[in-house]
Design a protein that fits this description.
It is a single chain. Helices cover 38% and strands 17% of the residues. Helix 5 packs across helix 6, helix 5 packs antiparallel against helix 8 and helix 10 crosses helix 12. It has a four-stranded antiparallel sheet. The chain has a three-stranded antiparallel sheet with strand order 1-3-2. The radius of gyration is 21 Å and the shape is globular.
Length: 382
Amino acid sequence: MVRRHALGAAHRVADPVAAAASVVCLHATEPASVYLSVAARADDVSVADIDRALYVDRSLVKQLAMRRTLFGFPRELLPAVWGSASARVAETERRKIGKDVVAAGLADDGDAWLDTARCEVLALLSATGEQPAREIRAALAHIGGTVSVSPGTKWGGDVPIAPRVLGWLGARAEIVRGVNAGHWRVSRPALTLMSTCFRDVPAVWPVDDGYAELVRRWLARFGPGTETDIVWWLGGTKAAVRRALADLAAVQVTFDGGGTGWLLPDDLEPEEPVDPMAALLPVLDPTTMGWKERGFYLDPVDAPFLFDTAGNAGTTAWWDGRIVGAWVQDEAGRVQVLLRDDPGRAARAALDAEAQRLTAWLDGQVVGSVYKSQQMKGIRLP
């Protein structure tokens, strides 16, 4: 895992695309995570370098995909994603939005309402080039309404339908995020047509080919892994995962502690041992979020202090392939490591060096998060 995920000083890569490829893709739910995940895996890469990859070169592209989550994908992987994980999300969102607009009295026919919404948004962006989401909503009365979500719960209430329509069109790969109007730690993107962003939009892969490619890349970076791991990461069905494993001629292997997992047929030789390494990873980092079954890198007793009840990870501190704590910043922006237990002198020294490296990279910028774990909040075990 250390080498494959480009973690540790001896294994870092040279650029943002290589950093993303080392973990298949980057979590982008929180905009800062993309930058911090790259910084953890690449030497001498600046915020400007990552901005260039996202918004100028378009070598990294943010796309709604697995588990209805936003990811930063290497551009060449997009056709596989569009035909599989993104298509699944788009279809689920189409059904939900159609049902909700009918329930809200905005339409009698949800599919027809969405067809009109799609045509209006695409026509507007064709005429303007790009627009922030709030301006799209203001310009198009058709998508200006609200729908009720989760009535009777603390999360419930009336919410605008426009962001969901735009998310649906993004999952369909018809629109894409343009230049971010805010700094790198916030998300204020303009939206533009995919055909405007790319001179030649590549053809979407067939669904089975797309899933097979995603599973192939996951196995190459995260394997061996269980079927449960792959289904969870992919946000797909067992049938889709089993079909992909068969298409790849994946090999079932037995874990030392019992149970079985999967590897690619050309990846069966044991890994050479590597020296222990330290890493400080951001909220929702792909390495932390790469597996559903996490016992091999995290003591189960520590999980509630590093993950929320939905399985979202806060910041993490790693030593020798395991999570040993979290990290936060003080008011001056200095990175502080919060350990669960004492991992020993060598680990403490290596983690302190990583904290100094990250502090220097952040250069006084303080990163906030809505996914603060209990450990990040300073809550300790009894």
